[in-house]
Amino acid sequence: MKLKTYVARNPQEALAQVRQDLGSEAFILSTQSRFLDGPGSEAGRQRRVEVTAVLGPEFPSSPGLPSWTVDSKAEVPAYFFEHFREELEELKAFFRQWLQESGPPYWLTRYPDLRTIYQLLLRAGIRGPLLHHWLEEIRTLVKDSPDAGPNLRKQALERLLKSLELVDPWRISAPGPIRWSFLGPSGVGKSTTLAKVAVRAAFMKKKRVGLICLNHGHLPASNSLAVFARVAGLPLKTVEHRQELLKALKNWEDLEVILVDTPGFNPREAKLSVQLWQLLGDIPELSHHLVLSSTTRESSLEDTIMAFRVLPLASAVVTKVDETRNFGNVVSQLYKHHLPLSFLTLGPRVPEDLKLANRTNLLGILLHSRNSHLEAKG
Ligand SMILES: Nc1nc2c(ncn2[C@@H]2O[C@H](COP(=O)(O)OP(=O)(O)O)[C@@H](O)[C@H]2O)c(=O)[nH]1
Ligand SMILES: [Mg+2]
């Protein structure tokens, strides 16, 4: 009898080695997947498959099916079953491990409804700490109420939405004066969002509104804000420095709403934190809202949040939701950086395309049926 163990990078390679060495009649006794130490450090550890195979007189060597499977009366040695059982266990463990590394966790595969939601969330771009948190939540859910039945799907989605922090800036600022700045990189929709908010405040909420356009160095906040202010009949001040900004805020003390448009700062600019702090730091009456475009790549979203968080951020405004299929990316980043979400913008129209984020419209967007869910109040 010949018993040998083969180590390879994957099961196919290991089986090819067995076949080449022992021939096609070799009998596989066990298959295992494990990390084996490579040369040197931890980094050298690599996943390998170990296959133990045997070829010998105790095992049927004739081609085709072994005789004991054909002749049911033939006596089958007990160790055969033991070998099969062990092999099956190891194969099961191997697949379980594989599924955990590259797919949904193994326990989730027992709940088809939850697995579908998991796939939808992945497709929508939910990942990282938010995905892990949601998995932990629903694992507790299925443990606590294994018979939740049709409610399970609904509850699982509710758990996700509950994890997201939402804020209503109108309510936070009430009843005091509103002083909001809109910050972010160039082209994300700061000036357009400001115009939408200004129209809501002035014409729907009937507030006295003033606009400040903060130009910094060679960076203009907006070329079109002056046109908008004229058309909307709203007062506009253009300022260049912190002192001018403070003076403008002071002079307009009696206005209920002051909205500050800022230039598109580059998050990769090395001295941005210092610049932002010198310009806007420590102005307690001013709430800063970071404007993020949902079409931005996740790594750039993270860079932006990290760069702007030198200022206390009251909320994130997520724009261009109408242009993305990966809304989950931005939501995952907000969760990761504990940044509450306030407004969503779903198009360039002023003011219609501004919505206050709520659990209903978020759910609609995440599940890609957004239009029917966007009747929420702005
Ligand atoms: N599709 C779409 N376009 C938008 C949205 N918000 C702004 N835009 C457009 O994005 C462009 C840049 O907007 P702007 O407000 O000037 O960006 P800023 O540089 O951050 O001030 C303009 O053409 C806007 O009309 C939105 O929610 N959806
Ligand atoms: Mg602008």
TrEMBL record:
Q: Which residues form the SRP54-type proteins GTP-binding domain?
A: 177-368
For this UniProt record, give its keywords in alphabetical order, as a comma-separated list. Bacterial flagellum biogenesis, Bacterial flagellum protein export, Cell membrane, GTP-binding, Membrane, Nucleotide-binding, Protein transport, Transport
* Single GO term (MF): GTP binding
Matching Pfam families, A to Z? SRP54 (PF00448)
Q: What is its main location?
A: membrane
Gene3D superfamilies named among the record's database cross-references? Flagellar FlhF biosynthesis protein, N domain, P-loop containing nucleotide triphosphate hydrolases
Which is a Gene Ontology cellular component entry for this protein? plasma membrane
Where does the UniProt annotation locate this protein? Answer: Cell membrane
Tell me the GO BP annotations in alphabetical order.
bacterial-type flagellum organization; protein transport; SRP-dependent cotranslational protein targeting to membrane
Xref: CDD domains: FlhF
Q: How does it sit in the membrane?
A: Peripheral membrane protein
Family, according to the entry, reads as follows: Belongs to the GTP-binding SRP family.
- Listed PANTHER family: FLAGELLAR BIOSYNTHESIS PROTEIN FLHF, SIGNAL RECOGNITION PARTICLE RECEPTOR SUBUNIT ALPHA
Q: What does this protein do?
A: Necessary for flagellar biosynthesis. May be involved in translocation of the flagellum.
* Record-given protein name: Flagellar biosynthesis protein FlhF
Organism for this UniProt entry:
Desulfobacca acetoxidans
